[in-house]
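Holo model, magnesium ion. Inputs:
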Amino acid sequence: MSGPLLKVENLTKHYPLGAGIFKKSIPVIRAVEDVSFSVAEGETLCIVGESGCGKSTVARLLMRLVEPTGGRVVIDGTDIAGLNKGALHAWRRRMQMVFQDPYSSLNPRLTAGQIITEPVENFECLSRKQRQALATDLLRKVGMSPEMINRLPSELSGGQRQRLGIARALSLNPSLIIADEAVSALDVSVQAQILNLFADLQQRMGIAFIFISHDLGVVEHIGNRVAVMYLGRIVELAPCEALFAKPVHPYTEALITAAPVPDPTRARLAAPVEGEVPSPINPPSGCAFHPRCSLAVERCRIDVPPLVPMPDGRVVACHVRAPATGTPLVR
Ligand code: ADP
Ligand code: MG
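Output:
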């Protein structure tokens, strides 16, 4: 098959803030602004950025759990806005999510075996034997002992619960798994095990991943490419190695400088950059990062920088570091 598995074009989501009498005067939360990227089959794309920058909203737009204000999500060449209910159902089956808190997303009354076979049983009837075989196979795939099959979520550790959430996501043989802060609630040592599991699954099963994290430190060894978001927009999208070796956008640079070393005894920095993230209701003019940026020039206060392709294949939205000399990629 040619072309990417998933293509996102100029995706935008504004949430209205309360109800106004005059429709046009309702203030909006600019959760996602003009986001474009693609994911190839079997690829892992990481999306990183501080809390509130729109990462989960992108995930919800991909699952079509919320309607976009603008832009398109194209799957295997088809715009999902045009899918009928059956086709959308089929797409959701091919795309699974893993969440931050497996405890709240797993039914506490079901056993591990029931939890991981449930998605399949929504589609087809399984005999006792088939169910047992499927659950055992999936538990093995995520590195859990088949003896865990009758455990309740409350009888499992945080890491085991997250493995269970991943086993459940794998049960329908998805083409794409979206992991939204899937390791953020785990201890650093358990985090590393789950990250290894994701990398392993990607290699063995050829599944594409969108791996979302507020912590740039955790994505270094798992992504093929990394998209850095700031206040609803992608500010840099680069091959993983290139991004960590030489961040171009000042925001990426600040995140990398502040990323915690994998040493549990060292405290994490609360905010990677000086100052607060501005409100998405009233984002700064021009480049939204300019109030926190030490390189900002007059132009940064006025014009939104376009994403400009660089010679090494990355795209960067920065008037100073990536001036638009050629044809901008977006607008
Ligand atoms: P992230 O996952 O990066 O932390 P989110 O996508 O959850 O960010 O949120 C982006 C912005 O959109 C935030 O300002 C958040 O408050 C806002 N937001 C998210 N969902 C809703 C919603 N359903 N209604 C109103 N605002 C929302
Ligand atoms: Mg989120």
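Residues 105-172 form one domain. Residues 55-56, 180-181 surround magnesium ion (ligand 2) (CB under 6 Å).
Archived with the compound record.
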